[in-house]
Write a structure and sequence with these properties.
359 residues; alpha/beta; Quinone Oxidoreductase, Chain A, domain 1; Rossmann fold; 2 domains; six-stranded parallel beta sheet; 11 helices; oxidoreductase; oxidoreductase activity
């Protein structure tokens, strides 16, 4: 098969061996796969997983790795010990985890579990979900990205006496905003340096967008909660200043620490950014303020299913996130473009494409 292959820190399109499905696995054809910031973190930071003994994510620069973990695919074959409950030709997706004889692997982040930047890859039948939708595969594949922020927003259980502050407006933040809106939470304050990202945040459900180059996000939050809205005045009269729930969705060193230093006392922080090179935190400040920090954790299967259904049904419109659609020969350039914060939130790889572009 043809694939965009990561080896020695660079990506090139070439021919590699077809994957062979093992017990409980499906062989699938990649229809569309999003480029995620996690792909960049994976290829740029060889030591990021040094302390992770799970073996789920393994980067060996001397071995071929096919990345891509946000996918929509088509079933083409079965491995042994499969139920074959999903007919050949059916469009499918899944949480990007592959069960193997040596343990669970993240699809697209391990030599044993190639991903959607190749013509074919493997999926675990047990967690595979059928795409019950006529929407294009380029839209369906975004569901996995949506599930991360969706899960964080759901787990936060923001109350009517709290006002969320979302730092960063990439795919994860936008999905958190969308789910907060669906849950009836508000007003939602979103922060990003890039005007196009702030516009997308409004499209996904944010009430107020903030350019941190012009005003401190925390001052902007304070202005919102002490604003003229009658409902907010009533809330403050009953409960005092609303509580703050911050969603850190940047993943750059220093951002989480700036939140710790700038936020209100008693703030709850959901850190889903996670810089792979690590960070320094003023823990004494966090202690004095009585902060509660929840680090990542990834989506639960239930939350993944919820996000997948919302995308496939069209009840959650993800088209504001979509930009270019590229072929395998353009993946290296697509990865470089994904580093640009002013670019589209999601560049989609379709292995059969020849560099076409969507609006």
């Amino acid at each position: 098969m043809r694939a965009a292959v990561l080896r020695g820190g660079t990506v090139e399109a070439r021919v590699v061996a077809d994957p062979v499905p093992g017990p409980g696995q499906l062989l699938v054809r990649s229809l569309a796969c999003g480029i995620c910031a996690s792909d960049l973190h994976f290829m740029d930071h060889l030591d990021a997983g040094a302390d992770d003994d799970s073996g789920m994510s393994t980067y060996d620069p001397e071995v071929d790795i096919v990345m891509g973990h946000e996918y929509c695919a088509e079933v083409v074959g079965y491995g042994p010990d499969t139920e074959r409950r999903i007919p050949v030709g059916t469009r499918v997706s899944s949480l990007p985890i592959l069960a193997t004889p040596t343990g669970r692997k993240i699809i697209g982040q391990n030599p044993e579990s190639p991903g959607g930047f190749g013509e074919y890859f493997l999926m675990s039948e047990a967690i595979t979900r059928v795409v019950a939708s006529d929407l294009p595969s380029e839209i369906v594949c975004v569901a996995d990205a949506i599930s991360v922020g969706w899960s964080a927003a759901s787990r936060a259980q923001v109350t009517t006496s709290e006002v969320p502050l979302v730092i960063g407006c990439g795919a994860i933040a936008l999905s958190a905003i969308a789910q907060l809106r669906r849950l009836g939470v508000g007003p939602i304050v979103a922060v990003d340096f890039v005007a196009s990202r702030r516009a997308t945040a409004l499209a996904m459900g944010a009430d107020v967008v903030v350019d941190p180059a012009e005003i401190s996000p925390f001052q902007a939050w304070r202005d919102v909660v002490s604003g003229p809205a009658e409902s907010m005045k009533e809330l403050m009269a009953v409960a005092g200043l609303p509580g703050c729930v911050v969603f850190e969705c940047v993943g750059v060193p220093g951002v989480l620490d700036s939140i710790i230093k700038g936020c209100e006392r008693g703030t709850r922080i959901y850190s889903v950014g996670g810089p792979p090179e690590g960070d320094h935190l003023h823990t004494l400040t966090a202690k004095r303020k009585g902060l509660n920090i929840q680090f990542g954790g990834g989506p639960s299967m239930d939350h993944w299913d919820e996000a997948f259904e919302a995308v496939c049904s069209g009840s959650l419109d993800v088209t504001p996130l979509l930009g270019q659609t590229i072929g395998l020969d353009e993946v290296a350039d697509g990865l470089a473009a994904a580093r640009d914060a002013t670019g589209p939130v999601r560049i989609i790889v379709t292995p059969s494409a020849q560099g076409r572009t969507t609006a």
